[in-house]
Amino acid sequence: MGERLFVVPCTLVAVVLAVGLGALPAAAQGDTAAAPMPRTADGRPDLGGVWDFRTITPLQRPQELAGREFLTDEEAAAFEAETAVTRNADLNREALAKVVTDRGVVNGTTETRDLALAYNDFWWDRGTRVVGTRRTSLIVDPPDGRIPALTPGAESRQQARSELSQRITVGPEDRSLPERCLLGFNSGPPMLPGGYNQNVHLFQTPQYVAILNEMVHNVRIVPMDGRPHASLQQWTGDSRGHWSGDTLVVETKNFLRETSFRGSTENLHLTERFTRVDAETLLYEFTVEDPTTWASAWSVEVPMRKSELPMFEYACHEGNYGMEGTLSGARALEREAATESSR
Length: 343
Hints:
This protein is α+β, with helices and mostly antiparallel strands. The protein has helices at residues 10-20, 73-86, 93-103, 113-118, 152-166, 321-341, and strands at residues 49-52, 105-106, 109-110, 139-141, 199-204, 208-213, 219-223, 238-244, 247-253, 269-278, 281-289, 298-307. Strands 1, 4, 5, 6, 7, 8, 9, 10, 11 and 12 form a 10-stranded antiparallel β-sheet that branches. It has a two-stranded antiparallel ribbon with strand order 2-3.
């Protein structure tokens, strides 16, 4: 994920400080007098319902904030105000164009200038606020808030993927699974905030937990009966769950090599934790381990908010027109190159 500078005009800071902080949910402001945590008939915390995990807090700590774990109230307000202005093309196209030109990033993702200016916030469903703790990164371990270094093997795979993406597409297998609408961009596992469809619906019984992501409607059925992991590799891995006090712990192994989380391999071991903090807040934590990809394990915290909205349809047009256009365009380029070489 890219990095952003926390810079904004003073007038915008004043506006946000005056009204923005007051609009935060009580749980995000650290209000401990929230409603009691609901429980199921068997006494477990009730995790059921739709949870929203939008936020503008970056995955990795920006370099200019090295050594700083938290933003001040003023810095958080400034970052929220800057984000609201610079990413909305209709509100301030000139400001957004300058940000894209100067930094080459919009909302933490590398994008072309034309794409960044093509849509305003009506077409996205991104977060508008930092997490309630005002952390400078979603990564909580390592302490520097950065993804650990890649192994030499992971660097080689990364280079190979980069070369693959630059060549003329031979077949669908050259394109990523999300681009082919087979897996979601933010649904993982593990889940991370993205551009849209940032909701997850949890269903809970004593025997099973179901994790249904709005993105591509990916669903995982997690047995809670202590059975061992199966040996079959799957795109979303093989999940098993258990309770540790009031925290639901989900262990996932046996990923397919094609299922790459930020360059991971089939050796990925994912541990997720779901803890209901109060009536409106679910703390989602995960740790990823893959010694063939990273020098060490790393961990993330993403606070989720209770949503009263239903899950919405996700219709992935890239699976219909996009792939056809990509492949037919590639064949046209090949014919054009063949014609030029024969002259």
